[in-house]
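call fold(seq) -> tokens
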Amino acid sequence: MKYNSLMEAQMGEWPDSLVLTDRQMCEALERVVPDWMTNHKMKDWPMYDARHEFGEWYAPIFYLEWERQQIEQTRARWARSAFRCRSEWPMGFFYACGKQDDGTYRHVGFRYGTEDCEYASGFDGMTYTPTKGESK
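ret:
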């Protein structure tokens, strides 16, 4: 379906969408934890079977450092996607959609065109939680 405006296209596909300013997107990138890491356990760590080689005291420290690196690498990948989207399509906008019962939004993307498929979803696994005072 062809829409007349970017906003109409976004709301036509996801009526619960929340448009994010560049600042909101930046702040979200600084605080979000990838959804696959929110429930990650040490037993899921690739080095779990070798943890005894690190020693009883150091294995948890190495695991926490690995986890921190995974989160930062993912945030960096999302930030590169955001920068690319903004530079390639300056008239587009970031959005969050798929509102959950807890108030978070399941998907984050970038709308750049009025066709159904003209959006960038280079933010797989990124959720958005509005801050206090922000419209929900």
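The chain has a mean pLDDT of 88.
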